[in-house]
Amino acid sequence: MSIRHSLLALLQDQPRYGYQLRVEFETRTGATWPLNIGQVYTTLDRLERDGLVAREGDDGGGHVVYSITAEGAAEVQGWFAAPVERSNPPRNELAIKLALAVTLPGVDVQAIIQAQRVASIRALQDYTKARRDTAANQRTADTAWLLVLDSLIFQTEAEVRWLDLCEARMVQQAQSAGQSAARKTSNGVTEDAAPLNADNRR
Amino acid sequence: MSVRGPQQVLELARVSRTFGEGATAVAALRDVDLTIAAGEFVAVMGPSGSGKSSLLALAGGLDRPTSGGVFVESTPLAGLGLNELARLRRRAVGYVFQDFNLVPTLTAAENVALPLELDGTAARKAGRQALDALRQVGIPELADRFMDQMSGGQQQRVAIARAIVGQRRLILADEPTGALDSTTGHGVMEVLRCRADAGAAVMLVTHEARHAAWADRVVFLRDGRIVDQAAAMHDPTFLLTQAGL
């Protein structure tokens, strides 16, 4: 998430001081990504150093108000115009966990998948509930929050679908492993189909 | 022996269903315990062949278990004759099937009124209730259309109106969003959710996580057994931590 660009975009709207920026950011994103006020000030310092914002002075209440410079406005324009860069591929703890689980002996991959599925569905239930509640008493300011919720819903749904796929693949693999093991058994005794844990691939 | 409170609309007690016999017997459901209370929306998920549709058929008395008991509002379905079972289905249970099961030679309103009329409700009263159900699913203006004059999404709404017409206490839906685009699917979930909020017990079979997430409780079936359940927590701090930051 680019805090830098988000703050710049908010300053393009109108000059603001640090605390206002934080409140504005959290309101527009439904407090999905809480901002640390220290983070806001550090970012403002850097933006000022880079000539993208300038101090306008005190608002009379002891707050330092910042405004965007022409260079800052160009930076915001560039940010909106360019697609979001994918850090090559984004680090995904779940994918890493499963990739390691399938390659290590003694790990019950199916149990990992199911535990994650329950957790993901639970999150999806909460997002869906939040979306219904928000849509039911919609104010204009909630549109941004609805979009963020939709994004979370789609991401989580994709995660569950991917888990389903992982599981189906594991079942297929276990079945074909079971079949080839059965073919190799020369004395005619058929082995049980391989259960879904990595022990059977040793 | 479990206690069945008045709020319990559906109870499946150690229900098993086996198809075939001997070596070729296939166990579709094994010792399933599941209860759904009034006002509760339960989604059933699981891979194909896990027993989802068998569960729904047993819950609505369309099929009988090999062993175990099915109770709808404390009435054991095993004790009912075919006629009594049919009457219970018409009065208390609403179904939404994957393929709609609508009568093409009837209008939308006539399709919706059909279960009421079969049950002896006067035509005018049934018609009024049908219109009310069509209003709840958002298509009162299509009441006089025939099925071939409606889109798939509209037909599905008619099927849902038929399932909720009158005061159905148990609504059973089998992949009701199968053929629908995502906006229409969303509308279907809204209707089911509203019925549950109004006090009906709702059971939805689906493979779509996005739809299952509308439920209060998600039950996971695998090889005919319930292997897990997820209940919504509705905890705002959970929402924040799950958002990734």
From TrEMBL, chain B:
Keywords: ATP-binding, Nucleotide-binding, Transport. The keyword Cytoplasm does not apply. Residues 10-245 form the ABC transporter domain. PROSITE patterns: ABC_TRANSPORTER_1, ABC_TRANSPORTER_2. InterPro entries: AAA+_ATPase, ABC_transporter-like_ATP-bd, ABC_transporter-like_CS, ABC_transpr_LolD-like, MacB-like_ATP-bd, P-loop_NTPase. Gene3D superfamilies: P-loop containing nucleotide triphosphate hydrolases (3.40.50.300). GO terms for molecular function: ATP binding; ATP hydrolysis activity; transmembrane transporter activity. The keyword Nucleus does not apply. Signal peptide: none annotated. GO terms for cellular component: membrane protein complex; plasma membrane. It comes from the Bacteria. This is ABC transporter related. It comes from Pseudarthrobacter chlorophenolicus (strain ATCC 700700 / DSM 12829 / CIP 107037 / JCM 12360 / KCTC 9906 / NCIMB 13794 / A6). The lineage of its organism: Bacteria, Bacillati, Actinomycetota, Actinomycetes, Micrococcales.
